[in-house]
Amino acid sequence: MRVIPVTADAEVFTCNAFLVVGDRTVLVDAGSMSGVEDVVAEHTDHLDAVVVTHQDHDHVGELDAVVERFDPEVYAYADHPLRTHELPDGETVQIGDEAFEVVYTPGHTDDHVSLVSEQRLFSGDVVVYNDTAFEDGSFGKTDRPGSSRERLIESLQTLLDRLPETVETMYAGHGDVFESRTGGDTVRDVIERALERAERRQPKYPEA
Q1: 182 occurs within a structural domain
Q2: Sign of the CA dihedral 120, 78, 85, 29?
Q3: What is the mean pLDDT of each run of 10 residues along the chain (208 residues)?
Q4: CATH classification of the domain holding 181
Q5: What are the percentages of helix, strand and coil residues in the chain, rounded to 5?
Q6: Residue 206 forms part of a structural domain
Q7: 3-class state of residue 98 by DSSP
Q8: Gap between the Cα atoms of 130 and 102, Å rounded
Q9: How many CB atoms lie within 10 A of CB 118?
Q10: How far is Cα 195 from Cα 152, in angstroms, rounded to an integer?
Q11: Residue 119 counted as domain residue
């Protein structure tokens, strides 16, 4: 299956929205880039579903436009006017050619989920490979109402507990896609490094 970052050329702040083309064509997050539905249409004329990792604006800002264009099913943990299916912890959802387990990972937001298959992780914002705070393992901000560093720390540990050893690629909501390297860092290494940094309880951006 192919995983295509459809917001890669955005000129506004947006998450990484990933189009997964396979047996079941799915968009993971819709982003906030105007015209994202046109980019999706360059790769497919049919979208089976949108799976939402959480409902920050940069992840769902263009959800209405995507739904209007393709009329897909919409999966989300928390209620949303366009949601057609809940995403409870432990549920399995097919994305592309693979079955993904829903792992409830609150902390950055209280509705955050990650999606884990035998080979891939869609981590949303709970853990990213690189951002403006840290390289090679960072974690989502927890400085807003409804967020919690303690819950995020628990979520990172939960993710490690439920991550198959065979996962080789992490698609995060921000920063670069990470692929495990032979003889080098693995996806698990990246999450463990993010967990260690989160556990310091220091501000993610000390200058803020």
Answers
A1: yes
A2: negative
A3: 97 97 98 98 98 98 98 98 98 98 98 98 97 93 92 98 97 97 89 96 72
A4: 3.60.15.10
A5: 20, 25, 55
A6: no
A7: strand
A8: 23
A9: 13
A10: 9
A11: yes
